[in-house]
Structures are given as structure tokens and as C-alpha cells.
Amino acid sequence: MPDGTVITQQPSTPPGAVVDDNGQINYKKLTPDDTRATVIKTSPDGNLNVANVNTASYRNFDIIVEGDIVRLGKNAARIGEINWYNVIEAEAPAKYQPGISQIRLKRGELLTPIVATFQINGNNSQELVLNYDIDTKPSDTVINGVTSRGTIDYIINPRDFNPNVVKAEGIRLLLLQPIGGAIERIYTVAGSTTRIETEVDADVVYDFDVFVENIRVTDAATQETIDGSLVIRLSDAPRPGDEVRYVLYINEDGADAWKSTSSRDFIADTHDIVEWDGSQWNIIFDASESTTPVYITNLNTDQQFYYNQYYWQYAIDGLYPRGTWDLII
Q1: What SS3 class is residue 84?
Q2: What is the DSSP letter of 1?
Q3: Average pLDDT of the segment spanning 188-217
Q4: Element (H, E) at 89
Q5: Alpha carbon of 279 to those of 70, 113, 261, 264, 266: distances in Å?
Q6: Quick one: DSSP state of residue 3?
Q7: Closest CA to 3 of 63, 43, 68, 70
Q8: How far is the first Cα of the chain from the last one, in angstroms, to the nearest whole number?
Q9: pLDDT tens for residues 111-141?
């Protein structure tokens, strides 16, 4: 099916529509820089018919998905300024069906689209309100700990977050910054660069070590701060395939709030998920060892996230450029 919209039942007169002398509903023309729908097939009975549908292509429109709300945009701009009625029914004999019409979201990491039914917001025709088909959403990855579940409770920056406020057995936190006295990372060089981007706040690191193929090269390395993060510069670029290991020394005595009940320091890295077991914090998801896709839902916001082996990103929310979404009306 081409990128676009399947169109069926017409709604009552929506905002922005007018009725002419013949009782026909007319819609405002799209502005010259908007692309109108091109109908490919028809569904004459006015019902959803997947074998014979109205399909319209909207290759020049982007959408922004935020929770259960979808807004139109153009070239990642004009977000929330475009009326959905104008797009769906501009020149097609459209019969949009609230609660039956569907949107399909395509993501590169998924084999099948995420599907939701929708209706145009009665108070704001620039918004679609979605009802997701949960069977098409990615399943959360079960992570074992005090309990076995695919959810976390909060996403936090441990530098300015006091865990004592939420500390309870089984509480889970996703970290945006490291915790503890030292952070060690190992990776295999893929390209050719002298730059190591640590993504750790520079002002919490007091020293570092770098090893290439187990040879210490720290003395020939320098450090700089870019956008607040520590970047290490090597004197010579490692060869593709070389193993690079670096250690960042954070502090010798960690914050008391992150210590165990026996005053033992806790060390964890950015992107890790940690859990309190009643006496100490434990890493239940080590991002540096992840080799498969991982999905989790943040119970605090009810948003799902996806770990792509480099960083966490929204699993569904975000920008969908033209060609990555369809409407089936």
C-alpha cells in the first residue's frame, strides 16, 4: 500500500468547512505550499474495506507524535498549524470514520507498523487523538531484579537527584549520568578518529586513563569540554578493529544517598537501570553489555523508550518524516 490515506465516511460539518447553496460541504483549499491528496482507489459503500480502499499520498507532510496526540508539520516546521480536515478531505470524496480510521507509524527498527485508530480532536482540528492497538506496539523487555518487569519508575540525573526521596524496595531508576568513583568503558574502533566522546559531565571527572590494545596511552592524550561533556583527544588515531578502554575517575567517596546500608559506595554508568533491593543499589541493566534491542516503559510518564545500543530514545513518540506514516480512513 502506498504512503497515504484510505478515506471513507464523511463527518458532520467540521471547523473550517462551509455549506454551499446546494447543501454540499466544502473545505478550504490548502495553501500553495501544501500538497493535496491524490486518490488511488475508492470505497463506494462508505465502510472500511481493506480490499478496495481510498488511498491518498501525503509525501510532503511530517507528523509529530506525543503520547496519544498527533500534529502535522512541513519539513519539521509549522508543527500544529495545519488543519487535519484540510489534509484528509481536501479533494477526495472522503468519509473519515472517528474511532475506526487508522494511522500506521513506520519505524526502522520494527518489521511491522505501529497501528492506532484515531479521531480528530473536537476542540482542536489540528490534532489527532490516538487509541493504540497494543498488539502492534513493541513489547517491554522483562528485566529481572527484586521483581521481574519491563518498566522503570523514574528517569533521573543522579547529580541532582536525591534517591532517598523515592527509595523503596524494588524501585527502578534509569540514569542519565554515572554514579560513583570510576567509570570504565571498552569499545572496538570502527572508523578513524582521535576523539573519544564520553558523554559524561566534564566537571565531575578529575582524571582519566586510556588504553589502546592494552597499551596505556594516557600521557599522550588531552581532554577538553564540549557542550559540558568530557572529550578525550588521543595523539594518534587507533586503527579500525583496535580495542580501546578508558577509565574516568569521578570521586573517591561517593554521595551517601547512593551508598548501601553498610556504607559501601555504588558505581553505575550512564544509561544503566538500577534498583534498590532494600539494602543496596544494584545494576539490573548494564547498557555497556547490551547486544539486543531493549524496550522499557517509564511508569512516571507512561512513555515507552528503546535502547539502540548507544542511547535511549522514544519508542513511539517523535518526528515521523514524510513516507514513514500512513492514514487508513
Answers
A1: helix
A2: -
A3: 90
A4: helix 84-89
A5: 44, 43, 5, 10, 12
A6: S
A7: 63
A8: 13
A9: 999 999 999 999 999 999 999 999 999 999 9
The cell for 5 is: 490515506
Rounded-to-integer distance, Cα 253 and Cα 325, Å:
50
Contact by Cβ (8 Å): 26, 19: yes
Q: Locate the domains of the chain by residue range.
A: 1-139+317-329, 143-178+253-292, 182-249
DSSP sequence for 159-172: TS--GGGT--TT-E
pLDDT of residue 76: 57
- Give the cell for residue 107: 519505524
Closest to 37 measured CA to CA, from 87, 75, 3, 74: 87
**Grid cell locating 218:** 594516557
Mean pLDDT, the chain, rounded, equals: 79
Tell me which H or E stretch contains 174: strand 172-175
Q: Return the sign of the alpha-carbon dihedral for residues 317, 325, 44, 83.
A: positive
Give the largest CA-CA distance in the chain: 84
Rounded to whole angstroms, the Cα distance separating 16 from 27 reads 7
**Closest among 107, 163, 121, 43 to 314, alpha carbons compared:** 107
Residue type present at position 241:
G
Residue 300 has a CB neighbour count (10 Å cut-off) of: 13
For 293, half-sphere exposure in the C-beta direction (CA atoms, 13 angstrom radius) is 12
Are 59 and 38 in contact, with CB atoms under 8 Å apart?
Answer: no
Residues 6+ apart with CB under 8 A from 127: 69, 70, 71, 80, 84, 120, 121
Long-range contact set of residues 130-133: C-beta below 8 Å, sequence gap at least 24? 130/65, 130/68, 130/69, 130/70, 130/103, 131/68, 131/99, 132/68
| H or E segment to which residue 87 belongs | helix 84-89
Q: What is the identity of the amino acid at 86? A: N
- Alpha carbon of residue 269 to chain centroid: 20
- How far apart CA 297 and CA 153 sit, in angstroms, is 8
Q: What is the pTM of this model?
A: 0.65
